[in-house]
Amino acid sequence: MEICKMTGKLYNFIFILLVFSSLQITSSFAQSSNSVRIEGIIKPIESNLQQVDIYFRLIGSPRVKFDVDSNLRFSGDLSLDKPEYVEFNCRKCGINAAKHYLKPGKKVKVEIIENTDRKWEVRFIGDGITDINAYLAKKAHTIEEIIKRKGKVYNFYKLNGTEFLNAANTIETQVGGLLKEMKLEREFTNTEKQKLEEEKLQMLIRFHSESEFVMSGAQLPENFDDGFLSYNLNTPLTNFKKAIVKKAFELQAIHMHKTKNVSLFHAHKKIIESIDFKETRDFMIRSLARYTRYMLPSPKEYLNYIVNNLDDKEFTKSIESTYKEFSSIKLGDSYPPLDSLRTINDEYVNLSDFKGKYVFLGFWATWCGPCKKEMVYLKKLEKVYHNKNIAFVGLSIDAVKSVEKWKRLVKKIKPGGLQLIINRDKKEHTDFLKYISLKGISRFVLFDPEGKLIHTDNPKPSEDFLLKELLDTLDIK
Fold it and tell me: Exposed, middle or buried, 311 (CB in 10 Å: 0-12/13-18/19+)?
């Protein structure tokens, strides 16, 4: 028997880890039909509960309403062609987006019971699902308790790198022990073991993107990303796995590049050639598109590889067009001047003021969420290249009317680098944006100590290894 009491933000947070990771339960489970029969009853303390709506929904599908009769009973069939997690709602009972595991060809009994403390319990009972749902409830409770020991959910991602990694390892270990202890179906157990690994990696990805610790420029533990290096990339692709596959692919290629003394391009290529699943291979090839813009040693090599190995002609045509556009931008000192750039203190700076230094210049705007994170990542770069002949500059392309908004945001997020804003009413400024074909942000360009434009697109500050590879080719002292 499975009992679920969790609601609110904590439940939703845990569900992100538990449910989306498990939508791809394989068809190796026995199937006898394409639906599940659901029969249920609501048991309130008082009998005056009226106008109750019950909904079931497969994740990513429209919800299905089950009518509740005068005796507070409901029944119906839910289309289901393979074992999946199903979302359950009974708002009058205070149950929103509760998640349970169902199998096709089975009959399920649902009991919604109000306790004396006015809290509701949901019990899903049925052949082949009772123990699994009991495990999932205990799993969610285990995660809840570990997170509570660290504070509320919104504080969990404020831990430092070591504390967070330890907590993620604790979740994986304790839940793994629970899974072993409950001795569930072998097929589910094997699938769940992989999911535990992937749930942990998803947590680490979120920490990378949201953590104040990371954004502050603080150093993560050396072993923080070891799980990505050992992750088996030869796997069927699912939506949940995409972020994991992308990060593991990149980190494994970088590791091979550093330890096997091969070019980054050949490391990427070698990994792709080891994959048996076409959808996974194609996803990896698509992820290489940015290398056709970066002025790394082999953008043409990456372009040719993508064009020759991807069937999507519309995508490859777009990549070829972008490559041609970026390749046509003339480097040197013939670009329109970037003078009279405004600071948050209403002072003005010219690009020529940085003569004698390399200038890593990033374009962003207050309305661009990812850009704001990249600006904060500049802090890390500043620490690495402190007191060297390179300046890091953030240049907002916000409209003139948004200057005050830009100032407030800069003071709030405290980004790295010198923060400036262009004047969109100034022809020289807009001419420069046209010159470098700025059609999207964030984007980073590079000037040499003579003020010459030498790179028109660079790895972002969050792509620290790639950027360091580029900057290490320069005479930065």
Answer: exposed
Decide if 418 contacts 393 (C-beta within 8 A).
yes
> How would you classify the pairing of strands 418-421 and 341-343?
antiparallel
C-alpha span between 175 and 190 (Å, rounded): 14
pTM, two decimals, is 0.79
Are the beta carbons of 99 and 121 closer than 8 angstroms?
A: no
Cα 394 from Cα 372, distance rounded (Å): 10
Give the full edge-to-edge strand order of the sheet including 35-43.
2-4, 120-126, 107-114, 35-43, 73-79
Mean pLDDT within 393-413: 93
The closest alpha carbon to 23, from 82, 97, 88, 106, belongs to 82
Q: Are the C-beta atoms of residues 363 and 378 closer than 8 Å to each other?
A: no
| Residue 339 neighbours by CB under 8 Å, 6+ apart | 350, 351, 352, 428
Instruction: Read off the amino acid at residue 47.
Output: S
Instruction: Please name the residue that has the structure tokens 């349970």.
Output: 100
Name residue 418's amino acid. Answer: L
- Sign of the four-CA dihedral 151, 157, 160, 162: positive
The crossing angle, in degrees rounded to 10, of helices 278-287 and 239-259 is 60
For 180-194, what is each residue's pLDDT tens digit? 999 998 888 988 899
Q: Pick from 327, 442, 368, 297: which is nearest to 319 by CA?
A: 327
d(CA 444, CA 452): 15
**Cα–Cα distance measured from residue 107 to residue 112, given in angstroms and rounded to the nearest whole number:** 17
Burial environment of residue 385 by CB neighbours within 10 A (0 to 12, 13 to 18, 19 or more): middle
Average the pLDDT over 79-86 and give the result. Answer: 83
Cα separation, 160 vs 167, whole angstroms: 11
Q: Judge whether 102 and 58 are in contact, CB under 8 Å.
A: no
Q: Distance between terminal CA atoms of the chain?
A: 67
Q: Where are the beta strands (DSSP E) in 50-90?
A: 54-58, 64-66, 73-79, 84-90
The interaxial angle of helices 464-471 and 369-384, nearest 10 deg, is: 50
Enclosing H/E stretch for 109 = strand 107-114
Distance, CA of 263 to CA of 296 (rounded, Å): 11
- State the angle between helix axes of 299-309 and 264-273 in degrees (0 to 180), rounded to the nearest 10: 20
Q: Which of helix, strand or coil describes residue 137?
A: helix
Query: pLDDT per residue over 312-359, tens digit each?
Result: 999 999 999 999 988 888 888 888 888 999 999 999 999 899 999 999
